[in-house]
Amino acid sequence: MAKEYENRIRDSGMPPEAYWESLFDVPLILEKLGIGSFHDVAELGCGYGTFSIPVAQSIAGTLYTFDVDPAMLARTRERGLGLRIVCEECDVVACGFGVRVDAVLLFNILHCEQPVELLRHAAQAADTVVVIHWRYGATPRGPDLTIRPRPEQIVAWGHEAGLQAGNVIDFPPWHYGLIFTA
Ligand SMILES: C[S@@+](CC[C@H](N)C(=O)[O-])C[C@H]1O[C@@H](n2cnc3c(N)ncnc32)[C@H](O)[C@@H]1O
Q1: What is the average pLDDT score of the chain?
Q2: Three-state SS across the chain?
Q3: Res. 1: pLDDT tops 70
Q4: With a 6 A CB cut-off, is 50 part of the ligand 1 pocket?
Q5: pLDDT surpassing 80 at residue 4
Q6: For residue 48, which atom of ligand 1 is closest to its CA?
Q7: Mutation test residue for ligand 1: of 33, 43, 50, 68, the one with most atoms within 8 Å of CB
Q8: Among the ranges given (6-10, 88-92, 140-144, 167-171), the one the predictor scored with the smallest mean pLDDT
Q9: What domains sit in the chain, N to C, each tagged with a CATH number?
Q10: What is the share, in percent, of the chain residues with pLDDT greater than 70?
Q11: How many Å lie between the centroid of ligand 1 and the Cα of residue 4?
């Protein structure tokens, strides 16, 4: 059971690492999103580094990542030794995160209480904001359906934050993605 931290995004505790990582085709997702074409990237809520580590390996610049949970940061730092990766403890909803990058990644966190605020912080930091989330429906993990956004809801939040959405990208079996531009 994950420890609770002040301001942790609701329903953002993590199952065991190996199980979490069995739920994604990480190389396919990053390739379809074109992540390797960005220079500096920020990921908000690194978790175990499931995406942070391969992103840091695929970009020419630095991967900045932030989390409220010191155990998640420690694991990502451990896995990222020798890579250009900066891991900082930060509540990204309350405070933003204070770096300028080419793309911000919001992966599996937009079921938070203040999604538009989070998208605004991301839009202030980059011209591209990339989202993935759990499909709306039966999935082996993911936030409760009462708080889980559908893709069209995320698109509408993006508009409120001043962002334009591209098409929904399918990541079978459990996820979808959206690329927003300023
Ligand atoms: C569901 S996990 C997703 C992790 C990673 N993005 C992925 O997809 O593998 C959400 C992560 O966000 C972190 N988190 C929750 N609330 C946060 C906040 N307010 N600021 C920064 N990180 C937060 C949690 O500790 C957890 O590691």
Answers
A1: 95
A2: CCCCCCCCCCCCCCCCHHHHHCCCCHHHHHHHCCHHHCCCEEEECCCCCCCHHHHHHHCCCCEEEEECCHHHHHHHHHHCCCCCEEEEECCHHHHCCCCCCCEEEEECCCCCCCHHHHHHHHHHHCCEEEEEEECCCCCCCCCCCCCCCCHHHHHHHHHHCCCEECCCEEECCCEEEEEEEC
A3: no
A4: yes
A5: no
A6: 9
A7: 68
A8: 6-10
A9: 17-181 (3.40.50.150)
A10: 97
A11: 12
